[in-house]
Specification:
Blueprint lengths: L3 E4 L8 E8 L2 H11 L4 E3 L9 E8 L2 E8 L3 E5 L4 E7 L3 E5 L2 E5 L3 E5 L5 E5 L3 E9 H12 L12 E3 L3 H15 L11 H18 L5 H5 L7 H13 L7 H8 L3 H11 L4 H18 L7 H7 L5 H12 L3 H6 L2
Antiparallel strand pairs: 1-2, 2-4, 3-6, 4-5, 5-12, 6-11, 7-10, 7-12, 8-9, 8-11, 10-13
């Protein structure tokens, strides 16, 4: 196995890092794990000569997703954990944390949080998807969803089922991120896409795993009042090209994400991000109708916050019955 790493070339959105790494050196592997996850001690029962480690890691600010592979059995011991972690594996990984012992398998993931030491025993010739979420990011995501401060740690359940239901759906989101590791040209290079996907992963975990605030999170949410919803609508009309997230709009309206969503449903008739796309499409159509000879569809799409030309073309045709290029040709 080689020894080194490859980083895709910039530009990236702030906080985005993608690394491919392989090494037969225990110290080099330890340094990579320390950089992206946590300080760990590595114990290799078969001895260092048998050691082999590979990593493909993507970091989106407070969210890290890595595919880690081990040529031989390896035991990892972290004396202290400062974030929330999820371990998904192709084989069997035995974890011990806060009095819990969980065996992660292809249909069961282990979860541990910022509460003391962790030990993980990996089989030889195994691979895991290792997910790390900074404590502050996950707790702030929950506070935004609920609309009030929370006191952590959250007390996440130590295990999540991946065979069906919400856990399976959440694991597909993680694998979507993992698959982007193979592509130097990726929509994750667009800040709007990266931020929305990161938020989806965090909120999806909160909705998939029992924790101290689960009942509040899944209970009915009151609709935001019309005046507050109007503030969010006005913000969309003022700056439709801005990389808004639903959390941004909730903060503008001074309410929880769930109240914003319910308020939009009742008072506007669509979800917040659907409404944002609708306004962007209208602005794009206006720009195409007034376009000069040197204006392109791509330039107009980027002007109004669309990161993917194929997707704007499909949405545009559904909305207006013609393609953006058809509108442009008639100018």
């Amino acid at each position: 196995m080689g020894d080194g790493s490859t980083r895709f070339a910039p530009p990236f959105p702030e906080g985005l890092d993608i690394v491919h790494f392989s090494s037969a050196d225990i110290g080099a592997a330890r340094n990579l794990l320390h950089r992206f996850y946590r300080p760990v001690a590595l114990d290799v029962p078969e001895g260092p000569a048998a050691f082999g480690f590979g990593a493909r890691v993507i970091q989106l600010g407070p969210l890290t997703v890595g595919q880690l592979s081990y040529a031989t059995a390896v035991n990892l011991v972290a004396p202290q954990v400062d974030a929330y972690h999820v371990t998904m594996t192709t084989g069997r990984t035995r974890t011990r944390f806060a009095g819990h012992e969980v065996v992660a398998t292809p249909v069961t993931a282990a979860i541990f949080g910022p509460e003391g030491p962790v030990r993980a025993e990996h089989e030889a010739r195994s691979a895991e998807l290792a997910i790390r979420i900074e404590r502050s990011a996950l707790e702030e995501e929950l506070a935004a969803l609920l609309g009030h401060p929370i006191e952590g740690p959250l007390g996440l359940a130590p295990v999540i089922g991946l065979a069906d239901g919400a856990g399976q759906s959440w694991s597909r989101l993680i694998r979507l991120l993992r698959n982007e590791l193979d592509h130097e040209v990726s929509l994750l290079h667009q800040p709007l896409i990266a931020e929305q996907l990161r938020s989806c992963v965090l909120s999806g975990l909160l909705l998939s795993v029992p924790h101290r605030y689960r009942d509040q999170l899944t209970g009915p949410a009151p609709a935001g009042p019309p005046r507050a919803i109007r503030r969010a609508v006005e913000a969309v009309h003022d700056e439709p090209e801005r990389a808004f997230t639903v959390g941004d709009l909730a903060a503008i309206a001074n309410m929880s994400v769930r109240s914003l969503q319910e308020g939009f449903r009742q008072h506007v008739g669509s979800a917040p991000m659907t409404y944002l796309q609708s306004v962007r499409l209208e602005r794009a159509r206006e720009s195409l109708r007034r376009a000069g000879p040197r204006i392109t569809v791509a330039a107009v799409a980027h002007r109004w916050g669309f990161a993917h030309l194929g997707r704007i073309a499909c949405a545009y045709r559904r909305r207006f019955g013609e393609s953006p290029s058809d509108t442009l040709r008639r100018t």
